[in-house]
Amino acid sequence: MSRSYSFALPLVLAVTMALGPLSIDAYLPAFPAMAEAMGVGIGEVARSLSIYIFGLAIGQLVGGPLSDRIGRPRVMYAGLAIFIAASLGITQVDDLNLLLMLRGLQAFGGGWIMVLVPALVRDQVRGRDAAKLFSMIGLIMVVAPGLAPSLGSALLAMGDWHAIFWFLALYALGVIPLQARVVLRHARPIDVTHHHDSLLTRYRFVLATRAALPFIALQAFAFSVMMLFITHASFIYQAHFGQSESAFSLMFGANILIMLLVNLTNRAVLNRFTSRQILITCLCAQFLGILMLALATWLEVSVWLFLPAMMLTIGAQGAVAPNNQACFMEYFERHGGTAASLLGASQFGIAGTLSALSTLLPETLGWVIASMFVCSLVCVIVIVGALRPRRVR
What we know:
It contains 16 helices and no strands. It has helices at 8-17, 19-25, 31-38, 42-70, 72-90, 96-124, 127-158, 162-183, 199-208, 213-240, 245-269, 275-299, 303-315, 317-329, 336-358, 365-386. It holds the Pfam family MFS_1.
């Protein structure tokens, strides 16, 4: 049963979840300074980003089932402690190998933190209320990636690149009392009936819930569309279309703005339509946007005709993620942490892999759009094969 919740609950969950994008995007402006300090190339420093993405996936695979076994609070506090310790460690290093190791550890703890957010939502609300709560959390998740690089630049202006990781450590430290006061005191008690279920048993239960599996594919491949865009955004707008750095920032920000507007609209539309209906509509809109991008690329149109199609494609993600999470988590009254871990690990693991593989393709606009098209096509195939609207009896 759903229970009522105050604005503080989604706010604290969003602040907690924002650790992910902050840890990924805040230090991007520091790559040149980090490379110079360590005496390596920027590409070698960029490896720390790939390690972080895969570390998040592994951390979620472990943290979710562990929270089902020993309780959400223990795993949340342990994950925050690991994250803080690794962040403090990074503030003291100037060696690439040590940086990579500590970023992996930081991501592992971050995975424990992030995987608990959908599990905690599932513990407390269901149905439309869950979708609305995910949508409210998504507001900050949309804004955080857009603000993180600017935050990183501001911290660099006040000190060296270590200041960014001091900030991350202090941010995570501040999350602890917020979680304790607002969220974790309402955490569901451990289910003693299934307390001794092994990790394999918990994952077998989730994977045996066949009706939920399409949502794992949708989460991974819809998110991959956005990750492919983020990976190649600078090439698209600056190298291919010849836009300046300031123009690139505005065009990139336009996608964030549309995602924000779609997210806000999603909350209102949920009063009239189900999460499944909105999810299908937005995935179809995303596919339509990519078809428009393909046509624009083939016709070699100007950036001002290309941009609206990209805004439609990426903007749809503002409602895809919260509704997909709500639909998936609805199936798991028990083993919710394990379910959330599989969803999150699939999302970051598959999107990270496809994004990395896309860098091996020829760097042309056609190949970038083709990669996005394939990911969106997978979503459409899943919709047609598994998520067709059910007949009302």
